[in-house]
Model the fold of this input.
Amino acid sequence: MIPTSPKIQFTLAELTKGLDVTVQGDSALVVTGIATITQALPHQITFLMNPRYKKYLAETGAAAVILTKDDSISCPVTSIISRDPYYTYAKIAAYFATPTHAEIGIHASAVVGQNCHIHKTASIGPHCVLGNHVTIGPNVVIGANCTLGDGSSVDEETYIDAGVTVYHEVIIKKRVHISSGTVIGSDGFGIAKHAGVWHKVPQLGRVIIEDDVEIGSNCSIDRGAIEDTVIGQGVKLDNLIQVGHNVRIGKHTAIAGCVAIAGSAIIGDNCLIGGGAGIGGHLRLADNVVITGMSAITHTIQDPGIYSSGAGGVVPNHKWRKNSVRLHHLDELVQRVKSLESVLKELTKE
Amino acid sequence: MIPTSPKIQFTLAELTKGLDVTVQGDSALVVTGIATITQALPHQITFLMNPRYKKYLAETGAAAVILTKDDSISCPVTSIISRDPYYTYAKIAAYFATPTHAEIGIHASAVVGQNCHIHKTASIGPHCVLGNHVTIGPNVVIGANCTLGDGSSVDEETYIDAGVTVYHEVIIKKRVHISSGTVIGSDGFGIAKHAGVWHKVPQLGRVIIEDDVEIGSNCSIDRGAIEDTVIGQGVKLDNLIQVGHNVRIGKHTAIAGCVAIAGSAIIGDNCLIGGGAGIGGHLRLADNVVITGMSAITHTIQDPGIYSSGAGGVVPNHKWRKNSVRLHHLDELVQRVKSLESVLKELTKE
Amino acid sequence: MIPTSPKIQFTLAELTKGLDVTVQGDSALVVTGIATITQALPHQITFLMNPRYKKYLAETGAAAVILTKDDSISCPVTSIISRDPYYTYAKIAAYFATPTHAEIGIHASAVVGQNCHIHKTASIGPHCVLGNHVTIGPNVVIGANCTLGDGSSVDEETYIDAGVTVYHEVIIKKRVHISSGTVIGSDGFGIAKHAGVWHKVPQLGRVIIEDDVEIGSNCSIDRGAIEDTVIGQGVKLDNLIQVGHNVRIGKHTAIAGCVAIAGSAIIGDNCLIGGGAGIGGHLRLADNVVITGMSAITHTIQDPGIYSSGAGGVVPNHKWRKNSVRLHHLDELVQRVKSLESVLKELTKE
Done:
């Protein structure tokens, strides 16, 4: 049912051109695809990064393997030797990705407001709706069924997939990629209780997405309350992530799926946040902080390092129930141990 | 404000036709709707499954009750006796569901690419956008404002609700149902750090949704990195679920809302995963594993059974804070108990 | 790149008109914007609510500060004295919010079904799709690319942002605001296992959204199984929240991002639920219950108060791993302490 792709084939020389690698073997070898080390066929290329897979190297059916110099010693086929095989793989795999066929220009079914500046090399997909004063830069691709609010701007080489909503005055910079279903610039959760009733606090800030950011699908990134919400350069967000108002995420931080970041949190550069973690409001994570998955972060972390919370490790439910009950009496247990210690101290004194 | 439905009424004989049940009472009785056991009116049908509700049976105002043979003894009205009352209810309730009025054919506002094969009995809703080489089977319904990428296919009797995004080369098989806001086939979270900067790893795999799968709203199902992401036959997913790249979910597994499944996890057949749970990357769950809600699964589970993690049970916050602090000194407490034990051992030796 | 806003300026007298505040200083002062206390410029207004920011008051560059009578004593500029500065700020900030430019009427690209009643003052955005028998009240705004199902209704002054999906027969009342990507009325997660296979249980109920509700982006609110799912008056929901079928949320309850509420839970009035919490199915929270972030609520809470679960407090990972292991032997530790106690009791008896 899948349409036949145009015949894709490259020599190893073509694939490795410009990369800091050494081909040990025949660089005129032609490959037609990529596969895992255990499944690769004689015209496919594969890679070895995870040591757990080294045992499959001797048996691989691949034409060539991207790997380190050390691993290449036991490689039975052509080696593409790299100091960083996963990065080399990423670069080579790009040759085999399905090309995007975005047509340049504004689709006839798109609705475009007044005073927009849309670069002639940009692609605006079918049924997109752009407000007034929207700016779209060179080589931008906006997928089908997207909505961009008044005064928003999208800078050059940015790709926005189908079904994304961008609110008014959101700034999206260069080479950003946003996946479907993501919402950028909705009102932050600002509410003030007065006389028993919640009143909306207007959200006057914007969202700024810096260069080279990647955002997964179905994320919610709120606009700032007064100042802006800022996603720093090179940040990578997975899917279903909540970014509250006024949050600032530092450069090159990567955040896995289903993370909830409450309002006004400040996250440093080069952090890694595991899936399902929650970051409390108005706190700071220093640069180079790693948070393990599903941790609840309730206070500021000032030093780089790996941090966790929660009661880790899955156990059979009957055992877990017993220990969980005990947990709720832990303070009493500590008191009991204290009593024991003082009684024993008295005893041993004698 | 709701439009008057067409008059819906059925006899018990009509409703139970083909079902493995016994009507104890008048099967010519006419019912016009379904309600809960406490709220049912004299022309409505109800069911009894949860033992907690048995106390309401004697007083029910319903015309008839779907229940087990044992429960039927105390049923004051007509009994529909079933070995599986909830299943029987599911089948009978279908008669009272609001019928979908999808018009056959491609809506004039839809945008359809080149070389698509759309069956003449399919319905493509208003403002849908289909790429090139899309295949749509018999009796498929695609709701309004959906986007389907190049080379995607949707097989017979599948329903896709409004506002769903399906990326290129995604395969959706027969009798699948997908709710609004769900995104299928977005890029997996593949990133490689090189020289301090994250580089995108192209995501070359597809997503395959097998027959009879049901997917709730606002889910994110990523395409595979090299191999495919596969949702097995009969799998049921609730809302806001993240399925990472390369994940494989076995047949007839059911997953509740807000579960996060990290990349390359393999989940067995007939599993049950509670709401808010997190499944780590590159691990396996055996068949017939049950995970309780909000558990963090960080290693492979090889045997069937019920598993949990976390510190369960909600308690008043002041008590919780005291015990939580103690938890972070639990290892020291164990050391203190060890010391006590050795001192006592010495003492009692004497 | 942002379009120049129309010149916005107000005197303090204009901004405080009708509010229960006292201007201490020149109420003819003109302000042109709002900023934080540390960043405000001489023509901007700011506010002081959080005691942590009081230290910046003496140095503020603002024209005027909204604050309490007590704080006004040390205010170097014009004071706007309020018993509730945050509420006063909310009201004043509304003057500086970007006005919505929704055009009255039905956009030419919208697709509207049969027998709809759309008030002449309502705005239906581009590429919206309305089913049959849809009712839209006065001054309602439906953003671009929304879908509203058959028999749904939206009452006066309600705003629905772009890209929202509302299923059939959903009732949305007055002055409601719904952000993008939210799905209301999708089928609840009702499945019945029979002969090893899950069968769908038809979801026959509706969703009712009462007056003055606010719902964030990418939320999923399921329709009821038999009765309705009800979001009570004045409820405020943040982003990415799951509300299962039959759930009832009481008046003026506020729920932070990424909360998962399982089916048939009943939540009281005036509750506060922290981000990332999970509320189990078929349980009740009393009025005035506060749940701290990321708690797992597994049983009914009958009394007002603050409740928590989980093992709080983030710690360095190496420490956490040690304590987490101990947690899984907590029951054994309790037994060891018991033994110690009885041995000691024997010893001290002598």
About this structure: DSSP finds five helices and 40 strands in chain C. The two ends of chain C are 88 Å apart (CA to CA). Chain C has a mean pLDDT of 93.
